[in-house]
Amino acid sequence: GAGVSQSPRYKVTKRGQDVALRCDPISGHVSLYWYRQALGQGPEFLTYFNYEAQQDKSGLPNDRFSAERPEGSISTLTIQRTEQRDSAMYRCASSTRSGGGTGELFFGEGSRLTVL
Amino acid sequence: GESVGLHLPTLSVQEGDNSIINCAYSNSASDYFIWYKQESGKGPQFIIDIRSNMDKRQGQRVTVLLNKTVKHLSLQIAATQPGDSAVYFCAEKMSNYKLTFGKGTLLTVNP
Hints:
The complex is a heterodimer. Helices cover 0% and strands 47% of the residues of chain A. Chain A has strands at residues 5-7, 10-13, 19-24, 31-37, 44-50, 53-56, 65-68, 75-79, 88-95, 106-107, 111-115. In chain A, the strands form 2 sheets. In chain A, strands 2, 4, 5, 6, 9, 10 and 11 form a 7-stranded mixed sheet that branches. Chain B is an all-beta fold. Chain B is built from no helices and 11 strands. Chain B has strands spanning 4-5, 10-14, 19-25, 32-38, 45-51, 56-58, 62-67, 72-77, 86-93, 99-101, 105-110. In chain B, the strands form 2 sheets. In chain B, strands 2, 4, 5, 9, 10 and 11 form a 6-stranded mixed sheet that branches. In chain B, a hairpin with a 6-residue loop joins strand 4 and strand 5. Chain B starts with a strand and ends with a strand. Chain A binds chain B through residues 4, 31, 33, 40-45, 48, 50, 55-56, 91, 93, 97, 99-102, 104-110, and chain B through 4, 32, 34, 41-46, 49, 51, 87, 89, 91, 93, 95-104.
């Protein structure tokens, strides 16, 4: 597709379940980011990939959160043993620029996670 | 810790007026700044960017001003239109890949 695609758009799960959120970046974009956005707040950095390498995961809240991008394209953000505080909009973004460069981030529509 | 913030959480203007959205940043090491527009239910959309070696940059109906002395960034929108109604975020980057966003300003354009 022309833009960053995320799925599912909406996910409702029960506390304690695992969830996997998928991001399909713009074709050819080498950089991929995961952000989390609370209502009325700016996106908060979670993790960054340069091709398939996860170069920064400092924003992941705890070890229940993990992300991968095994072939340097599609990425999955996994949250294990979900808790209510994990409820948020999870946004993926991609960029043509490799780490250290400037450049526009293209954001997806996001995955809205609700943990009951 | 250092962060990006906004002076005004909401701004209401009349259609046709000029809008000014302000942002204060505290990290002097930041060398690149971006303004994003986010409409309801959508992801942030790039508006305009500016490097720290510049103090002004103009786009179509938008101008970004950077004052490094007081660590202030502003977005000016000329002849504001109803379609400009959205939340606007400033973001900073510190010579690496990580973009740090501020809290956002809600712009409402009254017809």
